[in-house]
Specification:
Elements lengths: L10 H67 L5 H21 L4 H30 L2 H9 L1 H66 L4 H22 L3 E6 L4 E4 L1 H7 L18 H15 L5 E9 L5 E12 L5 E10 L1 H90 L5 E4 H11 L1 H7 L2 E5 L3 E4 L1 H17 L8 E10 L13 E9 L31 H11 L3 E6 L5 E8 L7
Helix pairs in contact: 1-2, 1-3, 1-5, 2-3, 3-5, 9-13, 10-12, 12-13
Length: 607
């Protein structure tokens, strides 16, 4: 930076000139601040007077209202106690008007308004006094007759309107003056602030120039040492903040630097116990030799370790797992002069991976068992069941006359139980096939899917006179067959669970939105979702069963009331789970039910 002062000036003279200039600027700033402060205080006093004028004017209006209420009450009741408010208000009004005259003594316009106001107040007092005298001499009827006379009422209203107008004029004038003074005060403050800031900036500039001129003679070596020390401290703080274990070794495989996490791993507190040491000073011989072989390979340039998972141990021999990175440190001439290593304790992660692998094996076995069960249910279980039904039919056809009434009843119960068992087996197959016979995800038009379901349910809809309305159903990626199952179960339930004689009303509405509020935890934030509401006017259910109804074979009603096995909603829940979605139910007994299905619009490539 060029020197703004003549070079013949010494450093001491430069300092003296800077100090003198600073003192002059401070004196000027003090004088300007003093003058501005005086003007500010004077303006603030006037502002306070204008605010007092507004407050006293408001009180005059309020006292007039109290007087008016007191006089009217006295005119009606003749109770002298009601005149206390009138007499008090009259006294306060006189005091407030006198105070207003003092506050506006320098304003001729306001004084003129106050003179007119006092005259009007006197007239108002006279009118009130006349009314009070009439009430004292006569009864309430005579007082009200006098008060209801048009010329009297018009005269009173005219006086009170004139008083209110004069008070409003006083308020407006005071408010305008108050606004002007407030703006003036703000301007004074802004100017004062600008002058002070300007002076401060000039003073700071002078001080900075003086400092630069003085500090330029500081030795370069000292600046370099300070910079180097700062960088060392910064590097040390950054390394100690990192939770991974960081260490640096020289070509002799001795530690030259490490961070707090590495020292904690070694059971040490300070660098003194680490610097200059080797791995064999801390670890068992076998482990130290393996570390030394890795270090030699990295120092020779034949190997670079990047995120290598390896077994390790603590200083007390406790086995752990580490993820280690070791890279060579290169000098300006391209020579390797050391290595830097970073290791992370992944013992918990390895344990979690092992648990996940175990859970995956269990899940695979569970799926295999489910598939085996489906095979058994579809073949081995249904075959003897079909024989029971076939022989039962033969028994009923050939020997029904010989069984008697009780025998026929037993046979009917047996056949009914066989039918129920067949239904249960078929429903279990439906539940298991949600995952075992799932189809790939593809483009699925939900509106078209619902139309197909309504076609299948046409007979039920026609027989019950139901009305099904749909709107806003989007196109998503899904298993079309399972989407059809989903709509089939929800709409069929809405048509089935109805009170006798009630016309079913079913509303299917869809909408799309973004997953910003965590509606689906398994779907990344921001991805598009769709919500499908299936609402009916049926019998509903107790809200405490809102989650239990999705359990397999959970029924809230007897078989004699409504048919079915209670597996449909379980199938719906498995379908939404497979599509990374969810289904919930809301209802109140006797007020219908609403099922809300939330699904992502897009699915991964592999279902």
């Amino acid at each position: 930076m060029p020197n703004p002062l003549p070079s013949k000036l010494s450093i001491s003279r430069k300092v003296i000139l800077g100090v003198v200039f600073t003192l002059v600027m401070l004196v000027l700033i003090a004088l300007v601040s003093l003058m501005s402060t005086r003007r500010f205080l004077a303006t603030s006093a006037t502002v306070s007077e204008d605010r007092e004028v507004l407050e006293r004017s408001e009180r005059v209006q309020r006292y007039f209202m109290d007087m008016e209420s007191g006089v009217r009450g006295f005119m009606l009741s003749g109770d002298d106690r009601l005149l206390v408010a009138y007499e008090t208000g009259q006294s306060f009004i006189i005091q407030e008007l006198q105070a207003l005259r003092k506050l506006t003594a320098q304003n001729e316009e306001q004084q003129a308004r106050l003179s007119r106001l006092q005259a009007l107040v006197g007239r108002a007092f006279a009118v009130h006094a006349g009314d009070i005298e009439i009430r004292r001499e006569g009864d309430a009827a005579a007082a009200m007759q006098h008060f209801s006379k048009e010329e009297n009422r018009i005269e009173e209203e005219k006086i009170f309107l004139l008083i209110r107008d004069e008070l409003n004029e006083i308020d407006q004038t005071a408010q305008a003056h108050l606004n002007e003074l407030t703006e003036q005060r703000e301007n004074i403050g802004s100017v004062n602030t600008s002058l002070v800031l300007g002076g401060a900036v000039l003073t700071c500039i002078a001080l900075i120039i003086a400092g630069i001129l003085v500090l330029r003679d500081i030795a370069d070596r000292r600046r370099a040492e300070e910079t180097l020390e700062f960088e060392r401290n910064l590097l040390r703080q950054i390394m100690d903040t990192i939770p991974d274990r960081i260490f640096v070794k020289n070509r002799d495989e001795r530690f030259t630097r490490d961070n707090a996490a590495h020292r904690l791993h070694l059971g040490l507190r300070t660098e003194d116990g680490v610097i200059g040491k080797k791995d064999e000073d801390f670890f068992p011989a076998e482990l130290a030799n393996r570390y030394r072989e890795d270090d030699c390979a990295v120092l020779s340039g034949t190997k670079t370790m990047l995120n290598v998972e390896e077994p390790g141990a603590t200083t007390d021999g406790h086995e752990i797992w580490l993820e280690t990175t070791k890279v060579p440190l290169m000098g300006p001439n391209g020579q390797i002069f050391g290595i830097v290593g970073v290791s992370t304790d992944i013992t918990k992660r390895k344990a979690n991976e092992e648990r996940l692998r175990h859970y995956a094996q269990q899940l695979q076995r569970s799926n295999e068992e489910l598939q085996n069960f489906a095979s058994v249910a579809s073949h081995d279980l249904q075959e003897p069941l079909r024989k029971i039904q076939a022989f039962g039919d033969r028994l009923r056809a050939r020997f029904s006359g010989q069984l008697g009434e009780q025998g026929s009843d037993y046979l009917a119960r047996m056949m009914e139980a066989a039918d129920r068992m067949q239904t249960l087996i078929q429903d279990l197959l439906k539940l298991s096939r949600v995952t075992t016979r799932a189809m790939p995800f593809e483009r699925c038009d939900l509106a078209e899917t619902l139309r197909g379901v309504l076609g299948d349910l046409e007979l039920k809809i026609t027989s019950t006179g139901a009305r099904v309305t749909a709107a806003g159903l989007p196109v998503i990626q899904a298993d079309p067959t399972q989407m059809r199952q989903l709509f089939q179960n929800l709409v069929a339930n809405a048509l089935k669970f109805q009170s006798a004689g009630t016309r079913p009303e079913v509303l299917v509405v869809g909408r799309t939105f973004a997953n910003y509020n965590g509606e689906l935890p398994d779907v990344p934030a921001g991805e598009p979702l769709c919500e499908i509401r299936v609402q009916d006017n049926g019998i509903g259910f107790d809200p405490q069963f809102a989650e239990q109804i999705f359990s397999p074979f959970k029924r809230l009603h007897a078989r004699t009331e409504f048919e079915g096995s209670g597996i449909g909603l379980s199938v719906c829940r498995k379908i939404t789970d497979r599509h990374r979605g969810k289904i919930v139910a809301h209802s109140t007994e006797g007020q219908g039910a609403t099922f809300i299905v939330t699904l992502p619009l897009n699915q991964p490539q592999s279902p």
